[in-house]
Amino acid sequence: MENKKIEFNSLKIEELEDLFLSLGEKKFRAEQFFRFMHQKKNFEIENCKQLPKVLIEKLKEIGYINTSSIYTKYESKLDNTKKYLIKLYDNRIIETVFMDYGSYCTVCISSQVGCRMGCTFCASTKENFKRNLTSAEMLNQIYLIENDLNLTINNVVIMGIGEPLDNYNNVIGFLKIINSEKGKNLSLRNITISTCGLVHNIYKLADEKLPVTLTISLHNPFQKERREIMPISDNFSIDEILKACKYYFDKTSRRVSFEYTIIKGQNDSKKHALELKNILKGLNCHINIIPLNSIKEFDGVAPSTKYIYVFKSMLENYGINATIRKKQGDDINGACGQLRQGVLQEEN
Ligand code: SAH
């Protein structure tokens, strides 16, 4: 795909309208084309029958619709979770997970091919960073699954492969397109962005005043111990992250939540619970405890389920709201931190 060409399905409606006006076309044509891509979820420009033939030819000359396809689907036997390997235009593979919670359906999408954050316990980072996903490639993950399962996705979590705030502009583009009335029209309140704490971009996101839910991967309340599992802590301290969270809450009125991947003997003591209470004092927040999903590259395990409940009660006794994340799709490596790009290479 040539770089100079325009990626139509990564353009916000206003950008597409400006483009059409610059081509001497009417605005409503841009809206027809936008609906074709984001409501009909169609990847072939020539199938857009509403547009005149000459315009279709002109569009094909200057741009393209970025197309992804389902490469493989794994279905969990334990629950209704499905993991999709999605093939991008350049043959790279990413993973996307569909979770069925009965009344609503959630997808966990990837934001990058690989990841450069280097968290020691996370599979996504093990094969290094390859490239950012475009806004269209994030949208395509949702559209492909909706088409495949013939249903509507009403919740999106950006918690798959990659660090969303390390691909800031494309993630914002994604949010604006998916939220557009002329597109999928998904409420931003139904979207969660998970970050390891890129402080400068938490401030930037707060200033956008988009009501998305922000969740911070905290995993340890002690700076030195957090650094041992999350190298990004060198750049952004826990103090700085918490200040940014307060700012986010003030700007958006959205309660920030924290993810806490619990690892036996490493971050699960009373001392950790007490320090969590100390650092989170006065912050309207919530902790989501994620039992560690073991990966071969990391030597650590989750505590027993019984003990995880003990840790949860410790937090609650300190006045911190906490929940334990249910494992989804454990038998298909669909759970948190188990997604990796490059499955294709491994299988081969
Ligand atoms: N880069 C984003 C999204 C990552 S994945 C972030 O750091 O938040 C979403 C969550 O899964 C993060 O909290 C991440 O730290 C956690 N996670 C990663 N590997 C894990 C593992 N092996 N077991 C449990 N949780 C894991």
UniProtKB/TrEMBL annotation:
It is found in: Cytoplasm. Signal peptide: none annotated. One of its GO terms (molecular function) is metal ion binding. The keyword Ubl conjugation does not apply. Binds 1 [4Fe-4S] cluster. The cluster is coordinated with 3 cysteines and an exchangeable S-adenosyl-L-methionine. Keywords: 4Fe-4S, Cytoplasm, Disulfide bond, Iron, Iron-sulfur, Metal-binding, Methyltransferase, rRNA processing, S-adenosyl-L-methionine, Transferase, tRNA processing. S-adenosyl-L-methionine binds at residues 162-163, 194, 217-219, 293. It comes from the Bacteria. Residues 101-331 form the Radical SAM core domain. It is an enzyme of class 2 (transferase). The active site is at residues 95, 336. InterPro entries: Aldolase_TIM, Methyltransferase_A, RlmN_N, RNA_MTrfase_RlmN, rRNA_lsu_MTrfase_RlmN/Cfr, rSAM, rSAM_sf. NCBIfam families: rRNA_mod_RlmN. Specifically methylates position 2 of adenine 2503 in 23S rRNA and position 2 of adenine 37 in tRNAs. Belongs to the radical SAM superfamily. RlmN family. PANTHER family: 23S RRNA METHYLTRANSFERASE, RADICAL SAM CORE DOMAIN-CONTAINING PROTEIN. Reaction proceeds by a ping-pong mechanism involving intermediate methylation of a conserved cysteine residue. This is Probable dual-specificity RNA methyltransferase RlmN.
